[in-house]
Amino acid sequence: MKKLSFKLGMLFFIFILLIESMLFFFLYFGIVSEKVKDETSGLLIRGISHRDVLEKKLDSVTVRHVALMESEAEADVIITDENLKVIDSSNEISSKQYQIMKNSKAIEFSHHGLILEARWKTEPYIVTVNPININNTLEGYVFMFLPTGTIRNMVNELTYYFLFMGFISIIFTFITIFFLSKFITAPLLEMKRATQELSKGDHQVQLYVNRDDELGELAKAIQLLADELKHLKQTRNEFLSSISHELRTPLTYIKGYADIVNKKSITNEQRYEYMKIIQEEASRVALLVKDLFELAKMDENEFKIQKEAVSLQSYLEQLVTKFRPAYESQAVQLILDFPKKDIEVSIDPTRFGQVIHNLLDNALKHSGTNTSVTLSVNYSDSQVSIIINDEGEGIPHDEVHHIWERLYRVEKSRSRATGGSGLGLAIVKKIIEKHDAIISVDSKLGEGTTFTIELKR
Fold first, then answer.
1. How many CB atoms neighbour CB 52 within 10 A?
2. Whole-angstrom Cα distance, residue 403 to residue 426?
3. pLDDT at residue 389, rounded to an integer
4. Is the pLDDT of residue 417 over 60?
5. First to last CA, the chain
6. Are 360 and 323 in contact (CB under 8 A)?
7. Class of 4-154 per CATH?
8. What's the whole-number average pLDDT of the chain?
9. CATH class of segment(s) 308-456
10. Strands 371-379 and 125-134, how do they pair?
11. Considering the chain, what percentage of its residues have pLDDT values greater than 90?
């Protein structure tokens, strides 16, 4: 049998059976030993009691009285003189009893009495003897004989009861372990079924997770995995759908205008205009593929950051200088607000430049004429804040948290007018995270947007 429930049940069963067997063993022999000890001690005490009576008055009447006292009891009493000659007995004396008394002649007896025979398993009697001493003179003996058949019957009954109770306890243990193993393995089997469904691509898995034990923690982990796989599948499908749409649109333009360009009926000016559109759309596809490649490397952890100490003021001035002509061409003012003290930061100049380039490019695309974009720096002992603030159209409040998602655009109708792949901010967030930094956004519709990067010093 390879089932876990069977193996677990058998393991529990053998373990508990061993414990029960040991307990029954020690309990059984303890009770038997105690019972035999009680019978032997009781026999010796009764012999001492008879001896004490006879020491007070040793005559035929007293002897007969002692013999009659034991005549209806299980034990036999035999009273002898100092030479072991029988004076009286409670019952007829057997040859075995004579033999035992005869063999006791060579034994030194204490006044406290002596157990002559205690082997109840093999001998017919348990035997005790008590000497009768009057005025320090030995006058006789009191022999007590208890048939061992009575003890063996008692032990046999006790054995029967122990075997019966052992059998009942084994059955009860087996039933308990059966249900216990089912109770433990049932959730595991359910989790196995869930993982098999996950492996087949079915992520609609629901497990019982309201348990405060290790099985509950495992169920929660599998449920979390299922939910994450479901979300990942949904995200992947949405991503592929968006990618196909993003590629289909420019490719449709390229194919359509390429067909038109091949017509002989158009003028050179029209052909030039259409070729320019084809070039723009090809650049758009190239940008999309480039950004996708960047994200793929980030997802596969092939994306490395090479940090170095950089003077932040000169670094940002160079970036602003490159962007200023583009801003001036659209009548947007680009302002760099830097503190008097230069600051040194540890960044990857190329990758971090990609972040600033993307944010300034986005600010320019969404800013109107005669507005301004401010790149400012604040610092403290523990961090440096780089803030890019524009006076553009802003982002609706309910869409702010979506801007980091891949291929997400706030206004879908403006995607072609403003350009971009819709992957820029997703790349920005990845690069910032690689720098162990934080980027946040605050935006008000119609007033502008502020991006804040917080770098550790």
1. 12
2. 8
3. 95
4. no
5. 63
6. yes
7. alpha beta
8. 81
9. alpha beta
10. unpaired
11. 19
Distance, CA of 305 to CA of 347 (rounded, Å): 8
User: Letter for the amino acid at 81?
Assistant: D
Predicted local confidence at residue 413, as pLDDT: 44
Contacts of 364 (CB under 8 A, 6+ apart): 323, 326, 327, 330, 332, 373
Helix residue ranges, H only, 300-344:
312-329
Distance CA 225, CA 191 (A): 12
pLDDT band at residue 346 using 50, 70 and 90 as cut-offs:
very high
Which has the closest alpha carbon to 58: 180, 142, 146?
142
Task: Give the lowest-confidence range in 41-50, 225-234, 403-412.
Answer: 403-412
d(CA 142, CA 55): 11
Instruction: Say what the pLDDT of residue 415 is.
Output: 46
Which residues have CB under 8 Å from 356's CB, separation 6+? 316, 319, 375, 386, 388
pLDDT at residue 409, rounded to an integer = 61
Domain spans in the chain, listed from the N-terminal domain onward? 4-154, 214-299, 308-456
Q: At what angle do helices 148-199 and 4-56 cross, to 10 degrees?
A: 160
Task: Quickly state the pLDDT bin for 293 (edges 50, 70, 90).
Answer: confident
- Choice between 228 and 45, residue whose per-residue pLDDT is larger: 45
- Which CATH number is 214-299's, of 3.30.70.2740, 3.40.190.290, 1.10.287.130, 1.10.760.10? 1.10.287.130
